[in-house]
Amino acid sequence: MFNSQRPRPEDLPTSSQLIRATALAAVAAGAILVAVVLPSEYAIDPTGIGGALGLTEMGEVKLQLAKEAAADAATGSASAAPAAQVASPTATAAKADAPQRSETMKLTLAPGQGAEIKATMAKGARLNFNWSVEGGRVNFDTHADAPGIAYHGYAKGKDTTGESGELVAAFDGKHGWFWRNRSSAPVTITLRTDGAYSDIRRVV
Asked: Taking a C-beta distance cutoff of 8 angstroms, is the pair 91, 171 a contact?
C-alpha cells in the first residue's frame, strides 16, 4: 500500500545544500556550547556572555554543590547534623600549652555567595564559638582539613540563623566553618571565637 508520493529528484536538497545546513547547525551548536553550556554548567565563560546573563554564577553554584556532595559521599555524612560540636574520642584532651585567644569576625555574603573561616588548632585543642546571621539564613558546614586529610566533617545545617558550641580538634590542622547564603538578599555573619588556636582567618 502506497500512502505518500515519492519526491522528485529535483525536489531533494543538493549535496552542497546539505553540507551548508550541517555547517550552520555545527556553528550554532558551538555557539550555544560556548555562550550558554560552559558558563552555566562549568563556570567557564570565554565570551563574557555568561557573566552578563548570570549563567556563570549558576555554574559556580553547581560546582560548589558538586564539591559539597562529593565531600558528603567521602565522609558518609550526607544528612545534616543538628549539633554544632562533635569531637572524635581521641581528641578529648586539650593541650595545656596551646595559646588562648579570642576574636570577633564579621563577613557579608551576597545571595548565593559562600565563605570559609578556619583556625589553626592542635589535636585536642578546644575552641568555644558563637556565630549568628543578620538579614537571613545560611547553610553551614563545620569541618577540618590537614596535609593528607582533605575533609573531616563535624556538623552541617541548612537555613540556620546561628550556632554556638565547642569545637574540639580531631587532629593538627585547619578547623572552621563554611557558610553559603541561600537567601535572595545579603546577610552578615558575626563569628566569635575563644579558645586554643594559633591563627584564624578567612580562606574563601
From this structure: yes
**pTM higher than 0.90:** no
Q: In sequence order, what E strands does 34-172 have?
A: 100-109, 114-121, 126-134, 138-146, 149-160, 162-168
> HSE of 170 in the Cβ direction (CA atoms, 13 Å)?
17
Q: What are the grid coordinates assigned to 179, written together?
A: 557558610
Cell 558563637: give the residue. 130
| Exposure b/e, 99-112, CB count within 10 A at least 16 = b | eeeeeeeebebeeb
Q: Per-domain residue ranges for the chain?
A: 15-75, 100-202
CATH of domain 100-202: 2.60.120.510
119-167 pLDDT, tens digit per residue, is 999 999 999 999 999 999 999 999 999 999 999 999 999 999 999 999 9
